[in-house]
Each structure stands twice: as structure tokens, then as C-alpha cells.
Amino acid sequence: MASPSDRQLVDGFGRVHRDLRISVTDRCNFRCTYCMPAEGMPWLPREDLLSYEELTRIARVCVERFGFDGIRLTGGEPTVRAHLPVLIEKLSALGVDIALTTNGATLRLVAHDLAAAGLRRINISIDSLRADRFTEITKRDELARVLDGIDAALEAGLDPVKLNVVVMRGVNDDELVDFARFGRDKGVQVRFIEFMPLDAQQAWTNDQVVTQDEIVARIGEAFPLEAVPESVRGSAPAARWRYLDGGGEIGIIPSVTHAFCDSCDRVRLTAEGELRHCLFATRQLDLRTLLREGATDDQLADAIRAEVGAKWAGHQINQVHFIRPSKSMSQIGG
After folding, report:
1. CA 66, 70, 74, 79 torsion-angle sign
2. Does residue 161 contact residue 124 with C-beta atoms inside 8 Å?
3. Are 168 and 210 in contact (CB under 8 A)?
């Protein structure tokens, strides 16, 4: 009989992995400048995508063999893949927490169906509250639909609803307080994300990063904050601050200036079935070929265990030996 430790997916640094990020598609209905080029993105052929049955099988191996307790669906934009509630229903049957990251543009159409299928939590990406700037960032005039999608998520009973804001100096950093106020008024948590070197244009520079310390200071001038103790954060990527007046809280994902690699418990599965042990990994495991060549659950589990065992200590952004991934964010999965 397997011991409890055999049901843990542990890397060479003792980190236990329990969180699976699944990209269901590389396609997106936006063209956010920090994620993908405005035109000319080569999409994966449909036959190269993992089917919902294949995605569910890998998820089941992670849950049953390694004790994973959380699955997040990403893209591209996951809602552009047909019949997404079908996948959520399959994954919900595994008895783990199911979450979704989306740009929110189609949520009015699908939020209730997603909730009925078993979705409980949702993160909605929105990088400006100004229509002209939103269009400039996303190359799509869709702010009104995204704002309506936030309302639809709340109406569908999804909880929590979180907003993801990638903060870029000289682009949208003058909206920090506006976003804080919006989150307070809506009763949703805004999570500010430091700009990372994953843009398709490879134009990222460190001086474009608005740091965690700066974000906290600028919002705190308008709405005084206090840090939520680190022990409450656990392995979550966002550090949290709460408003002193009880008006909720904000989160910050400081991937560049305060990397949380030492507590990372995530692995990522791309839409074509590549398992990556880090968002910035320069290697991946081809699970699609294993699946389609008839691998057993034991063989899949052994391959996953070996790949995660090779996980590095951290991504080393800003170090001279840092290597950018060859794929953009939309191809890896957010």
C-alpha cells in the first residue's frame, strides 16, 4: 500500500504541488499587448488540442495519485472553446476546487451555465477602466461587455470574483486608485500583477515594472492599508492588504520584485498537452503523445513525477542568466 508521502508530488526543493493550471485553448478574442501580437498569431490545429476527456484524465491522475486539490482553467481565452461547461462538469466530479481565469467579454452569455456546471471562483482580467485605453491595450472595444461580465459573474453567485490588473508603467499605472475604488464599490478583490517578461513582442524592460511597494504606497495614500499576515497567504501567489476601514482588500502578485518561487505549488498543462513545471520553464513534458500512444495511469504519473522532480528553484528574472520562454503567455496559459 502506498504511503501518504507517495501521494504527494514533491520537487527537489521539497515543494509539494497541489495546483494544476489547465490551458484549454491558445486562441483569444482579445490581443492584449503584453500577451500576444496584434495580428498573425498561429493557432494550434484543432486535432493538436487535448480533448476534454484527455484533459480530465490528466487532472484525475493529479488528483488521485498526488492529492491535487485545485484546478484553474485558463487560455488564451477559455470561454472561446466550445461547450466549456461540459469540461467543468467533468472536472467538478473529481471533488476539487475549480476556478477560471477569463477576460470576461462573454460572461453575460455563459456565467450561469458555468456556475451550474460546478464553477465556484473566477478571475476576470481587466487592465483599464477607460474605454479608449482599454481598446488600446486589448485592440478590442469591449470594455462595456467586460464590465457587464463582472456583474454577470456576481449575479451567477460566483464567489469570490477577483479582477486581475497587469500594471505597466506609463500605460495604466495612473489608474491604481481608480481600480481600488472600483473594487471597493463592487465588493470584489482587485489583484495587481507586476508586468512580467512574457509579451509576444519581447519588448519588456525592468523599468516598465510598477513594484509591489509602489502599488501599496500609492493606493494607501487614498485608502489606508495594512498587510494580511503571510501565514494567511500560504502558497497563494498574491500577497494581500486589507483596508483599515473594513472596505475589503487588494492582492498583489509580485512575480518580479518579490518572487514567490519558494512556495510555488503549481504545474501547468498547455492546450496541446505540454506539462510545464513553471510559467518560465524552458522545457516541457509531452503528455499528449503519452496519452495517444496508450500510456497507463501509472506511466502518466511516473512521467509527471519525474518532470516536477526536475523543477528549478526559481525563474531568476533580472538575473544575467535568465532565459525568456520561447512562447508567449497565450501559448503557455495564464
Report:
1. positive
2. yes
3. yes
**For the residues of 201-219, what is the DSSP string, one character each?**
T----GGGBPPHHHHHHHH
Q: Report the alpha-carbon distance of residue 221 to residue 80 in Å, rounded.
A: 40
Q: Which residue, among 153, 158, 146, has the nearest Cα to 103 in the 3D structure? A: 146
**Which residue stretches of the chain are H helix?**
52-66, 84-92, 107-117, 131-138, 143-155, 176-186, 212-222, 230-233, 287-292, 297-309, 329-332
User: pTM of the entire structure?
Assistant: 0.90
CA distances from 249 to 170, 186, 201, 237 (A): 25, 12, 33, 15
**What does the DSSP 8-state code read for residue 70?**
E
Give 277: exposed, middle or buried? Use CB within 10 Å, 0-12, 13-18, 19+. buried
Domains defined along the chain, listed by start = 4-163+262-332 (3.20.20.70)
With cell 486562441, the residue in question is: 27
Interatomic CA distance for residues 204 and 198, integer angstroms? 8
DSSP secondary structure code for residue 160 in this structure: S
Instruction: Please check whether residue 20 is in contact with residue 72, taking contact to mean a CB–CB distance below 8 angstroms.
Output: yes
**Is 122 in contact with 73 (CB distance < 8 Å)?**
no
What CA–CA distance (Å, rounded) separates 258 from 253? Answer: 8
CA distance 332 to 260: 19
- Quick: pLDDT tens for 233-287: 566 789 999 999 999 999 999 988 887 788 899 999 999 999 998 877 778 999 9
14: left (phi over 0), alpha (psi -120 to 50) or beta: left
**DSSP for 215-271, written as a single string:** HHHHHHHHS-EEEPPHHHHTT-S-EEEEETTSS-EEEEE-TTTS--GGG--EEEE-T
Residues 106, 76 contacting (CB under 8 angstroms): no
User: pLDDT tens for residues 135-166?
Assistant: 999 999 999 999 999 999 999 999 999 999 99
Radius of gyration of the chain (CA): 19
